[in-house]
Amino acid sequence: MHTCQVCIARIQRPQPPQSAAQRCSDVAIALIVILIAVLLGPILLKPVERNLELFFVVVGVAAAIVGGQFGWPMVREALIEPIGLTLAVLIFGAIARVLRPWFDSAIQRMRAAVSPRWIYFALIIMLGMVSSIITAVVAALLLVEAIAMLRLDRPSETAAVILACFAIGMGAGLTPIGEPLGTIATASLRADFWYLMRLLGPIVIPAIALVGVLSLFIPPIPAASLYAARPLESWGEIVLRGVKIYGFVFGLVGLSWGMRPLIGGHINRVPQAALFWINSISAVVDNATLTAAEIGPTLSPVQQRAILMGLLISGGMLIPGNIPNIVAANRLGINSREWARIGLMVGLPLMGLCFAVLYFVR
Hints:
Blueprint: H1 2-12, H2 20-44, H3 46-50, H4 52-66, H5 72-113, H6 116-134, H7 136-150, H8 154-172, H9 180-189, H10 195-215, H11 235-264, H12 272-278, H13 287-294, H14 301-314, H15 323-332, H16 336-361
Helix pairs in contact: 2-4, 4-11, 5-7, 5-11, 6-7, 6-8, 6-10, 7-8, 7-15, 8-10, 8-15, 8-16, 9-13, 11-13, 11-15, 12-14, 13-14, 14-16
């Protein structure tokens, strides 16, 4: 009887409150679990892959709640941020539908005169270089329509598109108007319009050229049964694509907000070399918000370069890492597994080469 009373007393005794350090540790673990789910879910689980937009909305909201960021500011940004991209997709989709016969004829005439290998090589170089001016979204939309007209077999088309998205993603970061990453970085650093071009251009421009050269090794195998070679899209399909992309970006914003306190609170303690590799999480997290969390005027140019190059290159490795990836994958029906197989094979060596340039060649 005495033993039972002791046990009851222990149960009823108030437990000490959880320490702040323990709470932070629990939050960090939960966010890491969410990142793993984002990384592996679309690759391993067919239901997730088939409902990718809904999946990202759910994990985005979950990350924001876990990270203590869910509230009106986060919801407002998540509602507003996708509008520009969604409108661009809808408008260009409508224009492409109207002009598709003319565009198709022009590409076919070009293909009759030039090998498809050189056409997508030129597309990759050109769109990578001009994406900082015409924006990454417009460059990606131009890319997928042109690649679709080449009527290559699926592996060739997928490889060409993924390489081009690497080039577009890197090139768009060279000015504040190319993509949100550049806008946020320029504003945070209080820099002039061409600062990112001077900071990153000597690495980004050769990287775009290298990606273009890699595309020459893609065999231009013709095929008649491509997803992209189907008849003209219906207006309903164009609207549905816009809705899906809106949901995708909504989820990415929530995911990025959820990671912000974890990243921002520890960035100053991280060695410069590690900053580059840590930002490989941009493969699954929106790089614009990671830029907002990490970039500031107290960082040295070496740190700025390491952070931004890590974000720009790794953003091409998986579909959620970059807006051009989302647009291209949605239009051409490229699934997460297909993208990861090529994106990781290209992106990881590029990361290693860039790291060597940053920290050994300088």
